[in-house]
Amino acid sequence: MKIEEIIGTIKPLKPLSPADAQVDSLKRQEKQLATTVKLTRVRSAIAKKRQQLSKLLSPK
After folding, report:
1. Would you tell me which of 21, 22, 40, 59 could form a disulfide with 16, CB atoms 3.0–4.6 Å apart?
2. What's the pTM?
3. Count of H-run helices and E-run strands, the chain
């Protein structure tokens, strides 16, 4: 396949209306916040397990 054939199949995106752009932005923010929430939960669980482990391993 030639480069011209590949480039010829790519269609340019039309610009979004302001309302559509705002909706798109809010969807991206929602996705990012969901990821942040998941990471925060995992990090706090790891911290809790580390604390439990350090209690078990500490000399009495």
Report:
1. 21
2. 0.62
3. 2, 0
